Each structure stands twice: as structure tokens, then as C-alpha cells.
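Incident review: delayed structure delivery

Summary: a single-chain prediction request sat in the queue longer than the usual turnaround. Root cause was a stuck worker, restarted by the on-call engineer. No data loss occurred. The affected request and its eventual output are reproduced below so the record is complete for anyone auditing the incident later.

Affected input:
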Amino acid sequence: MKKVVNISDAPKPIAPYSQAILTGDTLYVSGQIAIDPYTGKLVEGGAAEQTSRVMENIRAILNEENMDFSHVVKCSIFMSDMAIYKEVNEVYGTYFEINPPAREAIAAKELPMNVDVEISCIAVK
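Output delivered after worker restart:
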């Protein structure tokens, strides 16, 4: 059985998807982009600012299901260009200082709303 997770402290979906799906003890968090959940607008700034907003959106979704970043077992990072990898990685790394999850980080030709960063994850209680 699955539970749909949609909260006001994370951006509303911009297409037909849920912010996350909980099934059993596993939470599948959809790709998050740098939308401020309170204004509905993209954050200003570069890759670091976008990554920070994305990670805070993910934090809010995790918190809704009584999880935190220590529960994350897998992340997928999509970037507009591998040239921003270092900047994204520096911010991302601050959320996983101990026992970081498995992940991949790839450049995509184009991301939703022309953002530079999109991140999804899987977390387990």
C-alpha cells in the first residue's frame, strides 16, 4: 500500500506527480528543484543557492514522515552542466557529513523550468 505525501512546506508539484510516496518504511522523494515553497518562485542565485533550496525542500518532505538525511540511502543529482559539479557537491556534502548515501550525479540536457539542479532521493526508516 502506498501513501501520497504532499505538504505545504515543499513546492507544489509542477506536473502530475506527488512530492513523495511512502510504501512500507521506504520514502521515494520526487526530483526537487529550487522553488521556494512559500512564494512558488525559483530562488535567485547560482548552483549553490539552488542546491541549498533543493536540499531544504527534501528536508521538509523527510521531516513530514519523521525522517532526516540520515535515513537517505540513495540520491540522484541532475545538473545543467558538469561545470557546476564542484559547487553543487560542496553544498550537498554539508547535508551528508557522516555516512553519505549512494548516488549518481549527471548532466542533463535540460531540466524543468531551466534550473541548474534537480535532486531526488530514497529514504528508509
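Verification: DSSP finds two helices and six strands in the chain.
Action items: add queue-age alerting; document worker restart procedure.
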